[in-house]
UniProtKB/TrEMBL annotation:
<dbReference type="GO" id="GO:0051539">
    <property type="term" value="F:4 iron, 4 sulfur cluster binding"/>
</dbReference>
<dbReference type="InterPro" id="IPR004383">
    <property type="entry name" value="rRNA_lsu_MTrfase_RlmN/Cfr"/>
</dbReference>
<keyword id="KW-0489">Methyltransferase</keyword>
<keyword id="KW-0411">Iron-sulfur</keyword>
<dbReference type="GO" id="GO:0008173">
    <property type="term" value="F:RNA methyltransferase activity"/>
</dbReference>
<keyword id="KW-0698">rRNA processing</keyword>
<dbReference type="Pfam" id="PF04055">
    <property type="entry name" value="Radical_SAM"/>
</dbReference>
<feature type="domain" description="Radical SAM core">
    <location>
        <begin position="111"/>
        <end position="340"/>
    </location>
</feature>
<dbReference type="GO" id="GO:0070475">
    <property type="term" value="P:rRNA base methylation"/>
</dbReference>
<protein>
    <recommendedName>
        <fullName>Radical SAM core domain-containing protein</fullName>
    </recommendedName>
</protein>
<keyword id="KW-0808">Transferase</keyword>
<dbReference type="InterPro" id="IPR013785">
    <property type="entry name" value="Aldolase_TIM"/>
</dbReference>
<dbReference type="InterPro" id="IPR027492">
    <property type="entry name" value="RNA_MTrfase_RlmN"/>
</dbReference>
<keyword id="KW-0408">Iron</keyword>
<keyword id="KW-0949">S-adenosyl-L-methionine</keyword>
<dbReference type="GO" id="GO:0046872">
    <property type="term" value="F:metal ion binding"/>
</dbReference>
<dbReference type="InterPro" id="IPR040072">
    <property type="entry name" value="Methyltransferase_A"/>
</dbReference>
Amino acid sequence: MALKSVFDSSVIRAEFDKAGINNRFIPLIWKYVIQNPDCNWEDIPSLPSSAYTLLRAKFKASTSVVHSVFESNDGVTTKLLIKLQNGAFVESVIMRYDSSLGKLNGKPRPGGPRSTLCVSSQVGCKMGCTFCATGTMGFKNNLSSGEIVEQLVHASHLSTIRNIVFMGMGEPLNNYSSLVDAIRVMTASPFQISPRKITVSTVGIIHAINKLHNDIPNLNLAVSLHAPVQDIRCQIMPAARAFPLEKLMNALQEYQKKSQQKIFIEYIMLDGLNDEEQHAHQLGKLLEAFQVVVNLIPFNPIGSLSQFITSTNQKVARFQKILRDIYDIRTTVRKEMGQDISGACGQLVVNLPDKRSISNAAPLTDIEDIRRQILC
């Protein structure tokens, strides 16, 4: 039987309970492993002798390894290709920002340099979105909660991670139990990342949305809407047939009522398909009763697989103006990062290129500071 990740929270807690070992040792083990990734279990001080026996028999400090690291020419984006214990690969992306650059409500922003990690939750994806490279892989398998957390562990050796976005490979809410377990680890000691700094993106898995706030309060929810009407949504997102737009909006309304938080709406701009003025008006009317931030996403081509064309800057600007001026909906345009290393939105698909080295990266203005958007 394959050894489990020591960061598989529910597994290690169950094993410690069964062996009569106090769970208070678990965060201490995690902290030591993070600081000493190549450690042996015997190196960890002050554990009960039964804990060493159990760790040797059942767990590994890491079940995954960083296969390759790629630095973007933009100087602020790093993509990690991570090999799992079963031989499969996933990708994670580090994006560096400086949240003190620019202005907020006409005043200098507080803050400073920080990094956001884009995390994968599955190998491949079964949603089949036609604009997304990950969908071309099909679905391979869910990640364990430990494999999800290990992405954060690997990334933290390269940069101090302050924000997490589940916008990598896979549909997070289709791997619900591992997602929830992983986030509970990330928000506990020693990571202690606030739930308000974690965003889960979904195509709209209604039954999971209905549970999410109760299981993890204060989490940020992002919904990949991408179209204001059901027929266009189904055309570009086949899985949308299982989640009718009207029912999805009812679920989001209930989620917002419970959470009292803004919902982030992701909307990819596809020329001639969903980017006309009529679509902006339809989207504005659909969302006018909600507290949302709409994030317009320029389409990132995926080589010969692309059947879409990126919307022009003029169309994106007009779309944004309609939402802002007519419907008073806060609307941003996503700054694309890491396109040259296929690390931008919708481009994550496993390839096995040669390894590259890490280089120092300078921060840029944070144009997508999730916490700031919530407060505004």
